[in-house]
Amino acid sequence: MRTLLLTALLFAASTAFADAVSAPQAFTVSADQWAQQRSGAALLKLQPVHDAVAAWRAEPDAHILIRHPASDAGALWAGELSDWLVSLGVPSDHIDRQASADQPDDAVTLLVQRG
User: Fold this and answer.
1) Reduced to 3 states, what is the DSSP secondary structure of residue 76?
2) What mean pLDDT, rounded, does the chain reach?
3) Which secondary structure element, helix H or strand E, spans residue 109, and what is its range?
4) I need a surface site. Which of 24, 37, 43, 100 has the fewest CB within 10 A?
5) How far is Cα 31 from Cα 35, in angstroms, rounded to an integer?
6) Greatest CA separation found in the chain?
7) What is the pLDDT of residue 70?
8) How do the domains of the chain map onto residue ranges?
9) Distance CA 68, CA 105 (A)
C-alpha cells in the first residue's frame, strides 16, 4: 500500500514539475509603461522587458511571443517592440507576433517559451 501511495505521489509531483517547466513565462507591458521615452537602456530598466530578455537568455532555444491587441495600433506596437528586442540581442527568428482579440488594448504580453 505504501509503495502504491509513494508511486502515485512521485507521479503527481513529476507531472506538476513537467507542466511548470513547459509553461511559458508571461510578462505584460502596459501602454503607460510603453509611452515612456525609449532607448535600449530605458527598455532594460522596464521590468517586464528586462525579465523577458533575462528569461530568454536563460533558455538558449527559447522564443519570445509578443501577444498584442488585434488592431492596427496593436500590430504597430508589436512591430516596434520586436525591433527593440532585436536591438537588445534577441535574434529576429526567436521572436513571433500574435494578434489576439483577448488581449487588452492597453497592454502587450511577452511569452517566453521553450523552442
Assistant:
1) helix
2) 85
3) strand 107-113
4) 37
5) 6
6) 63
7) 96
8) 24-113
9) 8
CA distance 60 to 24: 14
Q: Which residues pair with 25 in a beta bridge?
A: 112
Q: Give 50: exposed, middle or buried? Use CB within 10 Å, 0-12, 13-18, 19+.
A: middle
Q: Which strand (E) or helix (H) includes residue 99?
A: strand 95-100
Q: Domain 24-113 carries which CATH code?
A: 3.30.1330.60
Cell numbers at 12, concatenated: 503527481
Q: Which amino acid is at 46?
A: L
- The beta strand positions in 47-91, using DSSP E, are 63-69
Query: What are the cell numbers at 85?
Result: 528586442
pLDDT tens-digit map of 34-65 = 998 888 888 889 999 999 999 999 997 999 99
